[in-house]
Amino acid sequence: MYSLPELEAVRTFDAIGVLTSGGDAPAMNAAIRAVVRTALNIGIKVYGIHRGYSGLITDDMRRMSSSSVSNIIQRGGTILKSDRCEAFKEAPTRRRAAEILKQNGIQALVAIGGDGTLTGAHLFTEESGIPVVGLPGSIDNDIYGTDDSIGFDTAVNTAIGAIDRIRDTALSHERLFLVEVMGRNSGFIATQVGIACGAEMILIPEHPTVVESIGYTLVSNRKAGRGSSGIIVVAEGPEPGLTGRLADQLRFFGEEARVCILGHIQRGGSPTGHDRVLASCMGITAVNYLLADYSDIMIGSDGRQLMPVPLQDVIKYRKHDPRLYKIALQLHK
Ligand code: F6P
Q1: Of 112, 222, 269, 280, which one has the greatest count of Cβ atoms within 10 A?
Q2: Among residues of the chain, what percentage have pLDDT more than 70?
Q3: What are phi and psi of 268, to 5 degrees?
């Protein structure tokens, strides 16, 4: 149960916009639904902007009604669609976007997405003066200022379901599997999933491990009679192909590993109850902060409370939390 901040509404809007941008994440729909219904309930019009910032610069937006967000809370993906909009990195494009919003009578924006989305949101509000509140929507959970992001819990559970199945065949064939999960710059998914699946090893970008050390550990485990089968969870890292290369290198140690890349499976699917509730509470809170005259913030969570975090900090600092990884190390054989 989240405690939502008590805020005094000191202003109102004729219309606000909502968009989802960057990599989609399960429960983005729940967040959209909460933003739309909260605003409509107090007489504010809502425009759904399609394809993230791309729709903002091409004037691709539609008025939303309460029923336009019916039956979406259980659906993965985002009904507004998403995009990684390179053009929005340019100031003249952002100026054009501000003009388009003004022409449509849209006076504030809720932007749901990860790092790139929140960076765009910060620059946009700073330059245009149009109030923006961001919501952390990313399966990676690598956003500074929040312990939890929309979609992370679902992605973790999806990966756990897949790895439990891989474990069955690994045990039957006494095989080693390298299972790659998402996380370009961070190992939050890998660590959480690795602990939950009892992985023999977890490899994450925050703690680079040399291949020799992995090889020697596997060889000594085998010699000690441990590890006829096993799961190593690998965070994808910045360079594509990492896990395949690792499997090749392990051959030099006599280790034959099968590779399984879970990839975009982790981004889809029906959101967990946890993500639906988190996204709903964050959506309500985003609108309430706009009414309380806040801007340039993201709604963060510490697991119990939702709070405003300046977007400037969100994009400046890197989220790093070694606690869970240390716990994982204690559980390895
Ligand atoms: O940012 C979320 C994420 O799913 C990362 O984990 C992954 O590296 C990336 O998006 C993949 O992006 P795309 O779908 O654009 O290839």
Answers
A1: 112
A2: 100
A3: -105, -175
Q: Kindly list the distances between the CA atom of residue 37 and the CA atoms of 42, 59, 137, 189, in Å, as whole numbers in the listed order.
A: 9, 23, 19, 31
What backbone phi and psi angles, to 5 degrees, belong to 8? Answer: -95, 125
* Burial (Cβ within 10 Å: 0-12, 13-18, ≥19) of residue 71: exposed
In this structure, the number of other CB atoms found within 10 A of the CB of residue 12 comes to 12
62 alpha carbon to ligand 1 midpoint, in Å? 27
Centre of ligand 1 from the C-alpha of residue 182, in Å:
7
Per the DSSP assignment, residues forming a β-bridge with 232 are 178, 201
- Ordered structural domains, the chain, with CATH: 15-151+271-316 (3.40.50.450), 152-267 (3.40.50.460)
Using alpha carbons, list the distances in angstroms from residue 243 to 48, 89, 178: 39, 31, 7
CB atoms within 10 A of CB 293: 12
- Please indicate if the annotation marks 184 as binding a ligand: yes
To test the ligand 1 pocket, which listed residue (83, 86, 139) has its Cβ within 8 A of the most ligand atoms? 139
183 lines ligand 1 (CB under 6 A): yes
Q: How far apart are CA 205 and CA 190, in angstroms?
A: 10
Q: Identify any residues that bridge with 299 across adjacent strands, giving them in sequence order.
A: 308
- List, for residues 211-259, the tens digit of each pLDDT value: 999 999 888 888 888 777 899 999 999 889 999 999 999 999 999 999 9
138 assigned binding-site residue: yes
Query: Which atom of ligand 1 lies at the shortest distance from residue 84's CA?
Result: 15
Q: Which residues are catalytic?
A: 140
What pLDDT score does 189 carry? 98
In the prediction, which pLDDT does 1 show?
76
